[in-house]
């Protein structure tokens, strides 16, 4: 079973699965021989240069197992007869932890105090606080649930939104009415045609004065120009792990917008997620070889 994997550590973890023949292919290695015989592809964290062209040449492909929860580089280009599975779950702890840290950093003004420290200034003033606030999770799925568990103890009210309503979770249609109630809005929706630019001027305009937008999902979810314009009024603040584009180029207006805290898409990728990714890949390939049902299959309704 010809399998392309993103690193020697993935090849190593699969080495005791009989019949699995691994070749390493990632953004910095040349494409190995025999693309038309590849049955299973585990693409790297950073997509290879031409994902659609690569998939089109994989005429024997049956399974793409991503190492990310996001599948937007692959989903629109999947060949008929091949299954796409994501890494739902493996980045939950890191991403949820980042979201808690980011909202506290912004509310308690840690970046501003760090600047004052570098200047040697004692800038005593009161800040906002997470306690007694309302945290709206837009895209309450695997990471959203992990975030909610971590918010227990912070004495906040959590409001949940998903694509469709279920018990305790509001549907997307209710979002406009919920936005003005939230002190912190955390984006955790996948990047899909439906979520592209969902955080536009109207969305931001409905947010409460002084509220914080936390984006741990994808940059494509936010209309960057609208966000920059809103940040410049000083009415909202933001914490962004993801931006459009990525990397954010030098001189981009987001870098210098007031009230924004930016990290370079580091929330989910941690030593914990690396260990969990290896376990997931091994379990999935074992199931695939045994003809068993796979986890995390991306269905048409994803
Ligand atoms: N910053 C980082 O390092 C990381 C970012 N991510 C991003 O987080 C996303 C979410 O990951 P998971 O929680 O594993 O996904 P999930 O599939 O478990 O949950 C996604 C949630 O979004 C909801 N949703 C989908 N479309 C929606 C819409 N149009 N409006 C409102 N809700 C909608 C779904 O109903 C579901 O509740 C990933 O797709 C990925 O893009 C994931 C891991 C790490
Ligand atoms: O899993 C994902 O989608 C990520 O963004 C991890 O970096």
From TrEMBL:
What does the UniProt keyword field contain?
Answer: NAD, Oxidoreductase
Which residue range or ranges hold the D-isomer specific 2-hydroxyacid dehydrogenase NAD-binding domain? 101-267
Q: What is this protein called?
A: Glycerate dehydrogenase
- Per its UniProt record, what InterPro entries does this chain match? D-isomer_DH_CS, D-isomer_DH_NAD-bd, NAD(P)-bd_dom_sf
Task: Drop me one GO molecular function for this one.
Answer: hydroxypyruvate reductase (NADH) activity
> What's the name of its gene?
hprA2
EC? 1.1.1.29
Top EC class, one word: oxidoreductase
